[in-house]
Fold:
Amino acid sequence: MITVSVANQKGGEGKTTTSLNLAVGLARRGKRTLLVDMDPQANSTGIFVNPETTKGNLYHIFNNKTKMKDIIVPIYNNSLSLAPSSMALAEMEAMSNNAVDAPYILRDALQSVEKDFDFCIIDCPPSLSIFTINSLVASNFVIIPLQAEKFSVDGIVGLQQTISSIKKRINPNLEILGALITQLKPQTLLTKTILPVLGKYFRIFENSISDGVAVGESHLAKKSVYDYNKSSRQAQEYEGFVEEVLSELQK
Structure:
């Protein structure tokens, strides 16, 4: 199982959108995929199920009350499953920080199901919390959604330091697969100025996601962008992104 975290400590960069459309895109190609919603806001979960009515969720994993296989919910085309989140997960953050094995909880839980899936996509919270650290410790790769704007650049350094520290101390196999530019306005001066700066920090995926209404409308409809409007520009762009990710992983 190849595990990929979709991470950025800054909110509003497109983590949840990228996570769910990458996961659905892989499932549409017949890849057995597990989407893990590590964000206590449970936005990825809410696209597919009601976070408050699931029998089990990641709160129970971090509370050491159940196993990963007992919370996984099949959600799409027999190829995509979900490890749901819940707002209750936020209660575990302070408690988990004090435990010696705190960074390893998710990694250990996923080991029991790694033969059941080809890919695991982790939707990380918009912070460098214990949940983001767990996700990076459990992952082979990181994808970083970014907007082409100054505040996105400002937040990169902290994320880079966290990834480097985890790679050095805990998970030497962790690699940054690349940065995905989201909500792109290609003709603006700001975009033309910022993109070369971002490229100094990370490899930038050739595919980017343009600014448009299809993504926001798909959230309201509780669907992937492909299922909401497969002919939309953003759906086509995410299709290209999924193909690029698969190509990179197969090198």
Summary: The chain has a mean pLDDT of 86. The radius of gyration is 17 Å. Residues 20 and 44 are 6 Å apart (CA to CA). Strands lie at 2-6, 33-37, 73-76, 80-83, 119-123, 141-146, 175-181.
